Amino acid sequence: MATTRTETGPLIDGATGKWEIVIGMEVHAQVLSKAKLFSGASAEFGADPNAHVSFIDAGMPGMLPVINRFCVEQAVRTGLGLKAQINKHSVFDRKNYFYPDLPSGYQISQYKQPVVGEGIVLVDLPGGKTIEVGIERLHLEQDAGKSLHDQHPDQSFVDLNRAGVALMEIVSRPDLRSAEEAAAYLKKLRAILRYLGTCDGNMEEGSMRADVNVSVRKPGGPLGTRCEIKNVNSMRFVAQAVDYEARRQIDIIEGGGTIKQETRLFDSKKGETRSMRSKEEAHDYRYFPDPDLLPLEFDDAFVARVKASLPELPDDKKDRFMKDYGLNAYDAGVLVAERESADFFEQVARGRDAKLAANWVVNELFGRLNKEGKAIGESPVSAAAMGSIVSLISDGTISGKIAKDVFEIVWTEGGDPAAIVETRGMKQVTDMGAIEAAVDQVIAANPQKVEQAKAKPSMVGWFVGQVMQATGGKANPQAVNELIKKKLGI
Amino acid sequence: MSKLTDLSIAEAREGLKNKAFSAAELTEAHIRAVEKARALNAFITETPAIARAAAAESDKRIASGTMRPLEGIPMGIKDLFCTKDVLTTAGSHILDGFKPPYESTVTRNMFNDGAVMLGKLNMDEFAMGSSNETSYYGPVINPWRRKGSDAKLVPGGSSGGSSASVAARLAMGATGTDTGGSIRQPAAVTGIAGIKPTYGRCSRWGIVAFASSLDQAGPMARTVRDCAIMLKSMASHDPLDSTSVDIPVPDYEAAMTGNIKGLRVGIPKEYRIDGMPAEIEALWQKGIAWLKDAGAEIVDVSLPHTKYALPAYYIVAPAEASSNLARYDGVRFGLRVPGKDITSLYENTRAAGFGREVQRRILIGTYVLSAGYYDAYYIKAQKLRTLIARDFEEAYAKCDVLLTPTAPGPAFGIGEKTNDPISMYLNDVFTVTVNLAGLPGLSVPAGLNSEGLPLGLQLIGKAFDEATLFRVGEVIEKAAGATPRPQSWWEV
Amino acid sequence: MSVDKETVRRVARLARIAFPEERLEPMAGELNRILAWVEQLNAVDTSMVEPMTSVVKVSLKMREDAVTDGAKAPEVVRNAPSGEDNYFAVPKVVE
Ligand SMILES: [Mg+2]
Ligand SMILES: [Zn+2]
To answer: Partners for B (CB, 8 Å, 3+ pairs)?
Structure first.
């Protein structure tokens, strides 16, 4: 599997010099379907043991697979979302191996002819840089069941509820070069899947799982031997696993050893990777086309129909936010990271000052949500309320400072921002007579400062502060500023 | 009136309709015949209670004038069909005690049409065999014997319990399955009729899989008409089987007009193989003459890749079987032989649970699919299949149906060929091409050889043209004259 | 391509069938006879031939995405040689 990335990535230090980490990912994304890929049993997470199991899923004699049309469509949809080649002819193969959670003794997967071929994912990195990550393929396959090892001293219990659930395996090229890049790629892939609605991206429930292939090399040198780290089930763990594994490999090589190609497991408690004993044996999967199924064929019309139903994806949305709303790349990137955030922002921005809206959503709202560990869907401040606050600022009803108080009230107590401003007397003072009286009073009370200000105009700020204080913050600071300058003749 | 067990299905249908006898009487006669014939070892499981209950229901239906197509007909079911709550073994030790919580589509179709199940029939283990000698439950004995000999002969295989039970008048008909000839070859050597329908005609759902791209269920009965009656019930489009084909099942009996004037019958020259017994050649010539006399046109055709069919089959079938049989691992059903860990549990269970022939084929299949050999064996064999299917397509440009012998010889003695797998495999030399190409094939009883053993002729049709096979088959059947019944030496 | 004792051992291991040492050699012989026999296929030039993918010329049947099965754990585990609380049980697997 060749990398498509040409430039050297970030380097890390070893005892013998600099090292480059090379990472490729295999992400298993569960298709958001009601039923399994080849049986009518429920694909829902969390049920009593073997309650979501048909005789097909249990590999009973004489049982046969019939494919779920929706799952096929979702794979094509995802392929289109990854700007990938859709293969109009693809084949289901059997991958043969023995394991207690694999009831038939084979997994139905796609080997030589997957449903989706090469594609591309653009990944924004924290520093503002964007990298292209090549997608090698996406194929449909069955999930395995689950073995529970801690219920009994000398037995493992097997639950087949997950067996046969539809997965999309999305294989990247080894185009990633650091833990941060790996985490950012996974985040972007998750966003795309969630935009498409083909996978919920829930890593805790296992509906999205990453196998991370890590190797190290001297900058510009040939690819090193890779180790596959299985089932890394959070963004944070991906970064931890990569860092740990790269360091482990560098230490081995620098200590004069060689890397053994193997499957390793990430232990999230210890933050380490370790060799998987059960996968040690050399595998010979004896792939061959599943004779119970026919090849999967589509025509151009089908692909066109799926394409026409695609939503606007993060990259396009980001471009539009920058172009139509005049947002900077950072704000636009943050807003499109989740479809819900982007939708929220657009509701706030509709018919309003978009940059002001972006500022409030990105800084005030997201800041607060992050602090309290809430998702956008759980925000106590609705898009309508947020929009109303932005409007109140724009039309001069409240100052930005007062707006923060209003936001706080809506966050904790709820309510309509306009009504809150009205009933609690938070409106900006717009009566020029009242403002003038306050200005006159401050000037009269501070003759010395007046003299100083005439020599040093930046002293105006001190007068504005005094007036604002006198008006309880409700005067329009712009108006106060202008009035003071006029009165002082500066 | 002749004995109830001697009636054909068509005759029994008339008798039941006219209330000449009841379904209960018909069923009791067969239950008694089964009990008296245990020496044949045709049944693995007898189900008289199920049979009696079904017969009672049939009598009610007959009384109320709501007779179904197979109403009250006592049948045997090959033990490869999963039958709800009834032990299903596939002739293997590894399915020890397995009672499926589901009913196969084919048997469900038959029971919905009123068929009465007498029990589950013995067979080669996982349908791997041509003599019924690989069954964990012991060999089935052919009801036929050579003139003046009491040597035990094989009933053909793998549907050996099916062929023996029908030939011995224990059941009026039986289900079989045919992966390389397992319906037609045992039918031929026991003097009965049997058809392997077009692949996709009968649902494979609920039938223990041997080689998925070749397996097909079909009927075995004493007359061509009885096979037509049974197939009409067994066949259906099944949404649960992705390879079941959605085309209507015709009224096969209506197609049996007896008229084959102008029909073009192809004679493939490649079926004249080296060392073919003279009596088989003579029988074939007789068949050609019968059809000519009935007004058919005889055409010489060529199926040039015929001789590669058997070796291609012995790659494809074991490859698929090695994967299909991976589920027998001692975890979810059947036999479990403990081990110190999960791997030794698997290895011990499969070593004890599978017989030698099954193990041999799993090893071949595993080997030909393994890394580095897949293209040389499996892909090569699948390419040969393409060529074999193409041969048939080209032949059918010149003819409507093909006539060949069914098997290269009559029934042989038990133990005669067990030490030489390849000579055993050669029993399927005339039947296996049809499986590789997915076509229908009918074996028709065509008389007895000099030793008094039955022989069969095979008709091969175009895809989904079983109707023509029944029509031509009946013409051969009539010309050959009724096959006598074997002497009931087995009765106790 | 000839099969030796070690190949039989490896293939039997892949197929998860315990094979006593004394059966390896005879089985190698049996497999070699069968493989030598099937190798007559090499006499046919198939370089321009597509392998057969399915005998039936129909398109893949698809079902709608609806839950129509499951909710029968007792039946699923009914035939199991060992189990508890509707789980299947196997000797402890170490990962
Ligand atoms: Mg993988
Ligand atoms: Zn996978």
So the answer is: A, C
Whether B78 and B187 have beta carbons less than 8 Å apart is answered as no
Q: Is residue C31 one of the residues assigned to a domain?
A: yes
Closest among B74, B118, B134, B70 to B360, alpha carbons compared: B134
Annotated domain spans of chain A? 11-306, 312-423, 432-488
Which positions 32-71 of A are in contact with C (Cβ < 8 Å)?
33-35, 39-42, 48-56, 58, 66-71
Classified by CATH at the fold level, domain A432-488 comes out as: Arc Repressor Mutant, subunit A (1.10.10)
Which of B243, B334, B379 comes nearest C51 by C-beta?
A: B379
Number of independent structural domains in chain C: 1
CB distance A421 to A397 below 8 Å: yes
In a domain, C74, yes or no: no
Judged by DSSP in three states, A61 sits in coil
Helix axis angle for C5-14 and C21-38, nearest 10°, is: 90
Beta strands across the sheet bearing C83-84: A146-148, A155-159, C87-91, C83-84
- Are C60 and A277 a contacting pair at CB < 8 A? no
Q: What is the pLDDT of residue A457?
A: 84
Local structure of A460: helix, strand or coil = helix
Residue type, A440: D
Tokens found for residue A363: 């800084």
Cβ under 8 Å to C: A residues 279-338: 284, 286, 289, 291, 293-297
Q: At what angle do helices A383-394 and A339-349 cross, to 10 degrees?
A: 40
Residue with tokens 């045919």: B178
In this predicted structure, what is the pLDDT of residue A279? 57
Task: Compute the distance between CA of residue A263 and CA of residue A230 in angstroms, rounded to an integer.
Answer: 7
| Chain C stretch 11-40, residues whose beta carbon is closer than 8 A to a beta carbon of chain A | 14, 16
Pairs of residues, one from chain A and one from chain C, whose beta carbons lie less than 8 Å apart? 135
β-strand pairing of C87-91 with A155-159:
antiparallel
First-to-last CA distance in chain C?
36
Tokens of A353: 């000052």
> CB neighbours (10 Å) of residue B93?
19
Q: Which tens digits make up the pLDDT trace of A193-206?
A: 999 999 999 998 99
Cβ–Cβ gap C18/B242 under 8 Å: no
In sign, the C-alpha dihedral spanning B390, B394, B395, B400 is positive
A299 CB neighbour count, 10 Å cutoff: 9
The set of chains that have 3 or more CB pairs under 8 A with C is A, B
Other residues' Cβ atoms within 10 Å of the Cβ of residue C19: 18
Residue of chain B whose Cα is closest to the Cα of C3: B367
What's at A418, amino acid-wise? A
Helix (H, G, I), strand (E, B) or coil at B217: strand
Helix spans in A23-121 (H): 69-81
- On whether residue C50 sits in a domain, the answer given is no
- Distance, in angstroms, between B82 CA and closest chain A CA? 7
Residue type, B158: S
Report yes or no: A143 and A167 within 8 Å, Cβ to Cβ: yes
Nearest-CA distance B164 → chain C (Å): 30
- Determine contact, residues B174/B75, Cβ cutoff 8 Å: yes
In a domain, C62, yes or no: no
In which band, very low, low, confident or very high, does the pLDDT at B1 lie, cut at 50, 70 and 90?
Answer: very low
- The answer to whether C70 and A51 have CB atoms below 8 angstroms apart is yes
| One-letter amino acid for residue A162 of the chain | R
Owning domain of residue C30: 5-42
Say whether A91 and C95 touch across the interface (CB within 8 A).
no
Domains and CATH numbers, chain B: 1-492 (3.90.1300.10)
Residues of chain A with pLDDT under 50: none
B158 is catalytic: yes
Q: Is the pTM of this model over 0.90?
A: yes
Of the listed ranges A87-91, B283-287, B315-319, C55-59, the least confidently predicted one is C55-59
Which ligand sits nearest to residue A168's alpha carbon? 2
